């Protein structure tokens, strides 16, 4: 098991649990967190024994944003030359296997954006989402203006970005930002159970289903539908597809090979 400075990683059967662990900074996302998450997600993606991942924070905060103290001392040229924030897209969003964000407490700025990089968000009733960057004289930089707008529509995204106001769990569910709300005390157990259910599916099919739904965000309808058909056709070539359909006919659970 790898050990990290800013996150905790454990494997529970086929599910990897990653916990953000910078309580002194409400899990603010600094360069080290990105490096640690990049390594943990790459290891997860590469490990055939791991089939779903849950990313969570603490009771008080999933993550309170990019690390303001780290950013405060950087010059504009540093942000540009480092292509600051690009690693999130390259290393975290690029994960091909499914992962869930289990959010309690604050998910602000980069924290909200990190949650939105997940395949879906399960929220505790204590979850609070927001893009307060405007109060710092900046704007979202890890995808918030795009993903929040696609998730909740222009009116709410615009209001949240312009005022910095937070959205509670109820409003987040009503608006389509999160898939479900659970009592805070049940959050982790519920997310792990959901992850285990996904991990029990034919692995290639989970990867393809994820890719397909993401296409709806990334392409036009015509291209998305074409890609969906081709990906569907790709899955018909797997041994697990033959097994899955045979198992249905024989009224028994399928036994997956992952290919
Ligand atoms: N970066 C660095 N440190 C942070 C932080 C952040 N984003 N958020 C909280 N912390 C630190 C605080 O500085 C404080 O540290 P000290 O004890 O050393 O003072 C510690 O975490 C605890 O925080 P608070 O005392 O502020 O806790 P609170 O309960 O009073 O308030 C809060 C909680 C409302 C979330 C408040 O901490 C807050 O407003 N945080 C900043 C939220 C924010 O602006 N996020 C956006 C960041 S910019 C961004 O993310 C850019 C992007 O698009 C990627």
UniProtKB/TrEMBL annotation:
Reactions accelerated catalytically: a 4-saturated-(3S)-3-hydroxyacyl-CoA = a (3E)-enoyl-CoA + H2O; a (3S)-3-hydroxyacyl-CoA = a (2E)-enoyl-CoA + H2O
Molecular functions (GO terms): enoyl-CoA hydratase activity; isomerase activity
Enzymatic class: lyase
BP-aspect Gene Ontology terms: fatty acid beta-oxidation
EC number: 4.2.1.17
A Pfam family hit: ECH_1
Record has Lipid metabolism as a keyword: yes
CDD domains per UniProt: crotonase-like (cd06558)
Highest taxon in the source lineage: Bacteria
PANTHER family listed in its UniProt record: ENOYL-COA HYDRATASE, MITOCHONDRIAL (PTHR11941:SF54), ENOYL-COA HYDRATASE-RELATED (PTHR11941)
Family recorded in the similarity comment: Belongs to the enoyl-CoA hydratase/isomerase family.
Descriptive protein name: enoyl-CoA hydratase
Organism: Sphingobium herbicidovorans (strain ATCC 700291 / DSM 11019 / CCUG 56400 / KCTC 2939 / LMG 18315 / NBRC 16415 / MH) (Sphingomonas herbicidovorans)
Upper taxonomic lineage: Bacteria, Pseudomonadati, Pseudomonadota, Alphaproteobacteria, Sphingomonadales
């Amino acid at each position: 098991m790898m050990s990290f400075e800013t996150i905790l990683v454990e494997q529970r059967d086929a599910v990897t649990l990653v916990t953000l662990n910078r309580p002194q900074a409400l899990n603010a996302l600094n360069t080290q967190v990105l490096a640690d998450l990049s390594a943990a997600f790459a290891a997860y993606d590469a490990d055939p024994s791991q089939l779903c991942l849950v990313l969570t924070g603490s009771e008080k905060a999933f993550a309170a944003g990019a690390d303001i103290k780290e950013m405060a001392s950087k010059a504009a040229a540093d942000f540009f030359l480092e292509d600051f924030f690009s690693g999130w897209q390259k290393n975290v969003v690029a994960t091909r296997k499914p992962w869930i964000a289990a959010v309690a407490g604050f998910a602000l700025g980069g924290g909200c954006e990190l949650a939105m990089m997940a395949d879906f968000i399960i929220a505790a009733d204590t979850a609070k989402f927001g893009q307060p960057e405007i109060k710092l004289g900046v704007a979202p930089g890890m995808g918030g203006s795009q993903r929040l707008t696609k998730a909740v529509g222009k009116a709410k995204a615009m209001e949240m970005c312009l005022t910095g106001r937070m959205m509670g769990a109820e409003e987040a569910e009503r608006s389509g930002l999160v898939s479900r709300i659970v009592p805070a005390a049940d959050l982790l157990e519920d997310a792990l159970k959901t992850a285990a259910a996904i991990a029990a599916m034919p692995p290639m099919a989970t990867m393809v289903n994820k890719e397909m739904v993401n296409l709806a965000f990334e392409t036009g309808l015509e291209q998305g539908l074409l890609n969906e058909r081709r990906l569907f056709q790709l899955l018909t070539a797997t041994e697990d597809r033959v097994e899955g359909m045979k198992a249905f006919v024989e009224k028994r659970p399928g036994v997956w090979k992952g290919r």
